[in-house]
Amino acid sequence: MYEGVRSPLVYTPRSIGEFSTIIFRHPQAILWAGGTHLMASPDYYPSEARDGIIDLAFMDELKRITRNDRYVEIGAMVTARQLLSAGRLLLPPILQQTLRSMGTQIVRRQVTVGGSLCISDARLSLSTTLAILSASAEVKRYDQGKVTTVWIPVAKLYDKEGKLNLGSKSALLTRIRIGLEFGDFQRFVVFGDPIRKSDECGIVALHAKREQNGLSKVQFCVTFPRKAFHISKDLESKLSGSALPIHPEKVNMLSHELVAELTKMHSTISDLQLERARRIFESFLHDLNSQSLS
Ligand SMILES: Cc1cc2nc3c(=O)[nH]c(=O)nc-3n(C[C@H](O)[C@H](O)[C@H](O)COP(=O)(O)OP(=O)(O)OC[C@H]3O[C@@H](n4cnc5c(N)ncnc54)[C@H](O)[C@@H]3O)c2cc1C
Predict the structure, then answer these.
(1) Distance between CA atoms of 280 and 294, rounded to whole angstroms?
(2) Which atom of ligand 1 is nearest to the CA of 77?
(3) Closest of 20, 91, 14, 105 to residue 60, by C-alpha
(4) In this structure, which residue's CA is closest to atom 49 in ligand 1?
(5) pLDDT at 16 over 80
(6) Is the pLDDT of residue 276 over 80?
(7) Which class is 61-179 in CATH?
(8) 147 C-alpha vs ligand 1 centroid, how far in Å?
(9) pTM (2 decimals)?
(10) What confidence score (pLDDT) does residue 44 get?
(11) Closest residue to atom 32 of ligand 1, CA basis
(12) 262 CB neighbour count, 10 Å cutoff
């Protein structure tokens, strides 16, 4: 049955320099991080069309977590589990909650930050949360024998359907950077199963700063895996500067504006997904109100 089937070549760079040499020679090679998404793809192995596999597991530079007093930097090969244990005192609660929501403990031992952000066509939890935390990603692009390094906000790594765009066919996400000043209101909710029933799922996250009687720096993202990655600048600016509590009529109006925006921009989201996202968004605002009154 397997006659004629060849194993793909696996390259194991130990540094970013070695990685560059390999990727220039094999620009179509698949980058292998934790492998959890790749192994779940129907055609992952083996394939004549592929140019081998580059296993990132031996690149120690991609496994570091460093911090200074302004931000923390996390290497692309840090796993969800490592980040949860190393960052317990450091990371904002919303990021810890996000990491804990990613599959089982066994899955989290395998899943990496880079792999989670670089699935080509499905946006899941980590992209959603890092987008509202204004995190940025360092990306190295390998084109025509030249390497360029750019920092890109995570919110801008994807198009409106959530498809990844690193700016080059051969690119490596090396690390992310998260500022250490967080707002004190953080909410993250996943409904449905992002992996087994991604068609019915949604991921909703909001982050804001409460000042005296008002709100500032509101950031909001709602994601429907394989359908939409939605950041509403309009809603964010309407909420930033709002006095607390927000009038129930305004809550209602904003939540219907969200649905109108989503419907206009993304035709594939189901009515049930829209309604659930709307209610979750509303519940965040009611939560904000009740906290401001207590
Ligand atoms: C049972 C199960 C349940 C899960 N549940 C959830 C969940 O609820 N929420 C959630 O968010 N996730 C969940 N996940 C994880 C998610 O589905 C992906 O499997 C995971 O995020 C991929 O990470 P990885 O490190 O294994 O990446 P890989 O599978 O190795 O790679 C994923 C993609 O990213 C590319 N890539 C990897 N690293 C880089 C890099 N540094 N630069 C450029 N490209 C790169 C690869 O080439 C590939 O295309 C679950 C996974 C499983 C198996």
Answers:
(1) 21
(2) 41
(3) 14
(4) 119
(5) yes
(6) yes
(7) alpha beta
(8) 25
(9) 0.95
(10) 62
(11) 115
(12) 22
